[in-house]
Amino acid sequence: MLNLNRLKKTKGRFSLINTQEAKVVDVINNSLIWGARNFLKEQGFIWVEVPTLTKITGACENVDTLYKQDHFGEKAYLAQTGQLYLEAKIPLHKKVWTIITSSRAEELADDRHLNQFQLIELERQGDLEALLKNTEGIIKSMLKEALKDNSETLQELERYDELQRWLAEPFPRITYTKAVGLLKEREINWGDDLTSKEEKYLISVYGNKPLFITHFPKKIKFFNMRQNDDDEEVVNSADLIMPYAGESVGAAERENNHERLVKRLQESQMFKILSSQGKTVDDFKDYLDLIKEKPILHSGCGIGFNRVSQSVLGVNDIRISTNFPLQRGVLY
């Protein structure tokens, strides 16, 4: 019987490249990506390309994990996200998406982090509720395609019944504040980020299926997540945490108030680090000007493909869902 969790690793690598297990991972990943593409096409999303060698605008919150590059004498970076470039297309198209190789110089070589992974990103006009419907829709489309194409394999992996159960009902939702309340015996304070252990506990409380956690504290999220109108301490955001993998999707409304956006950028921890490196608000000028000129309410998300795959496969190590897992000390 197939059991991917029995795979052994040598020097941080799993022997996946030319094995039967590799074939299983490949065909299921193939179904997952087509499930995502089919959903996006059916929902009217327009694919646009984004640069993968960028200015600082291709960074996520943790700018310390950027790979620095020289671009003919100009400082450049391997992109971690195409988010701001997708947002630039919102005035032209109501719904856009892309997929990039996100590059993050994580020093941790563990079962949760990769230095490169596939990131499916989408942006759309509309609020958080509309976005969460799309987020759940795309994940379920990925599951359906995997089940349709690989039913016997998933039954052999003892994954078929659980995946069917995830499809049967809407994904549950809780607020970050409620999550902290459920974790009160674990010494978590309001304003702390959630660890993978805490995510696993919350998933167990809600039936071991994908779970949305919404409305995170403003201070621990990206500067352009839209401040909640009723509670300025939180942003209209959500993480989808999935069994085995933990946080697999990050989603949020985007701040469309120019004055507030600039203030949030200047006050962010990310900007403090960038300022020490000689960066200024002018490095974000194109994006800030766009929001000033066309303050459209929109929202978007990033889906970590390999974490979704890890969850579908039911494996405890993200490296098993990735044939060429790049980490510190490992190159191919």
Query: What is the name of the CATH class?
Result: Alpha Beta
| Overall average residue pLDDT | 93
Number of β-strand runs: 13
What is the helix fraction of residues, given as a range?
A: 25-40%
Category by helix and strand content? alpha+beta
Strand content: 15-25%
Cross-sheet strand order for the largest sheet: 3-7-8-13-12-11-10-9
Ranges where pLDDT stays below 50 over 5 or more residues in a row are none
CATH-defined fold name: BirA Bifunctional Protein, domain 2
Distance separating the two termini: 29 Å
Continuous helix count: 11
Summarize it:
With 332 residues, the protein is of the alpha+beta class. It is 36% helix and 20% strand. It has an eight-stranded mixed sheet with strand order 3-7-8-13-12-11-10-9. A three-stranded antiparallel sheet has the order 4-6-5, with no helix packed on it. A two-stranded antiparallel sheet has the order 1-2.
Give a written overview of the molecule.
With 332 residues, the protein is an alpha+beta fold. The radius of gyration is 20 Å and the shape is globular. The two termini are 29 Å apart. It has a single domain, classed as Bira Bifunctional Protein, Domain 2 (BirA Bifunctional Protein, domain 2), CATH 3.30.930.10. Helix 8 runs antiparallel to helix 10. The strands form three sheets. The protein has an eight-stranded mixed β-sheet. A hairpin with a 2-residue loop joins strand 5 and strand 6. The mean pLDDT is 93. It is built from eleven helices and 13 strands.
